[in-house]
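Researcher: I've got a protein sequence and the SMILES for LLZGTKA7. Could you write out the 3D structure of the bound complex as structure tokens? I'd like something to compare against our soaking experiments later this week.
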Amino acid sequence: MSDVTPFGDRLEAVFAAYGRLCVGIDPHASLLDQWGLPDSAEGLREFGLRTIDAAAGRVGIVKPQVAFFERHGAAGYAALERVLAEARDAGLIVIADVKRGDIGSSVEAYGQAWLTPGSSLEADAMTISAYQGLGSIAGVLEAAESTGKGAFVLAATSNPEAAAIQRAVLQQSSRAGSTVAQAVTSGVVAWNQGRADAATRGLGSVGVVLGATIDLRSSGIDLDVDPPRPGLPVLAPGFGHQGAELRDLRAIFGSLAAGVIVSESRSILGAGPDGLAEAITRRVGDVGATSV
Ligand SMILES: O=c1ccn([C@@H]2O[C@H](COP(=O)(O)O)[C@@H](O)[C@H]2O)c(=O)[nH]1
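Model: Sure. Here is the predicted complex with LLZGTKA7 in place.
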């Protein structure tokens, strides 16, 4: 019996303690300017550390958007390493939004970078793409399981232009007739159900990314059946700045609502460094008052 706590169990504990809000760490140039910080690696580090200070003890999950740090090359990555380490030391669950995907051997290396305990980029979970086939990410998911890490697989993303690909219907494979989004979601559900301890688990350790801004039923996602067992973690960007409303959460996600992580970046970060803690506290309250 492994003494590693599964990521899904950690997520459940955070839901119980802090609720399901995730604060995105997205140092847009415009936000850096608003915060009085330079658009440099130092500015990004400061932005990230101030966000963690405001988040710690108020919310349970943060999601650094790696793209903004990558803009500054090696120095940006050094800033990100510090932000990741501080966030994890503060007890926050850290989801690295990196959206990696490739052939299996290469995507495994991405998994090693972001999910290996002791790695300089260690996070608790990463976003990952299965558009090179669900089998291509199996190695990462296995490695993640052995170390209590998690992954969120892109299924139906919040940007409207994704629909043309994600709603395409598969012609081949055991999931022929499903949309791409539904095939990914079903594949992740099946992965969680295939774990040895599946029957005893409340939430699986692998989830999907489903945007809150889109009509998930039109993407082929079945929201009207009983929730999967174990429950499916759903990383849900699209609330706040992109326009989705918390009051619609249950209608948007149907039977998957219980696993939803409400992810917001700009709508919270726009409060500025002085208003951030208050904005997080308020939003945690809003999310807590939202029925799933
Ligand atoms: O489908 C997706 C997947 C990821 N994202 C990321 O989430 C945040 C959203 O930021 P907001 O400021 O709350 O709009 C950002 O990092 C995206 O890259 C997404 O929006 N949609």
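Model: The two ends are 33 Å apart (CA to CA). Residues 7-287 form a domain with the TIM Barrel fold (CATH 3.20.20.70).
Researcher: Great, I'll pass this along to the crystallography team.
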